[in-house]
């Protein structure tokens, strides 16, 4: 008897494992701008599992506007250094779950909007990637007015806002599950 679409079992969107550390990273993948260059900022943190343990084999990708609020539309997101700012980077976590990027702080893409990085998380045990945002800390009124953040209670809203460290860097920890779980987003057309 021939199979019909109804008889077919859905398969996972992807299989993620420690093997991607060998194939996906590339030189300068986390350096959207050179470390220590004028206007650069370090975006860093850790990825934790549901038990609060660091995830040593996660991969994060960011996409962002530049310091003027323009989302770059240049070909070749992997171009480094000296090329146009592409607004895209990739960082794998180390054995202690740490990741980092050297980038610029994005400006808001519209009047009254809050500035943010878009983030995609790949990790062991995830059948599909996860999406979130990292909002810049600072202007509480702008953050409160953001349509996405305004729809969350205070505790959940906090899980999407980076912390400014004493050295000026931005810290953002990703919690995949548990009491401190980061808010993850679902986009139209994305199953997961």
From TrEMBL:
Molecular function terms from GO: ferric iron binding; protocatechuate 3,4-dioxygenase activity
Keywords: Dioxygenase, Oxidoreductase
The enzyme's E.C. designation: 1.13.11.3
Signal peptide: none
Domain of life: Bacteria
Keyword Transmembrane helix found: no
Top-level enzyme category: oxidoreductase
Intradiol ring-cleavage dioxygenases domain boundaries: 35-140
Entry coiled-coil feature ranges: none
InterPro entries xref list: Intradiol_dOase_C, Intradiol_dOase_core, Intradiol_RC_Dioxygenase, Protocat_dOase_a
Family of this protein: Belongs to the intradiol ring-cleavage dioxygenase family.
Protein name stated in the entry: Protocatechuate 3,4-dioxygenase subunit alpha
Organism classification: Bacteria, Bacillati, Actinomycetota, Actinomycetes, Propionibacteriales
Gene of this entry: pcaG
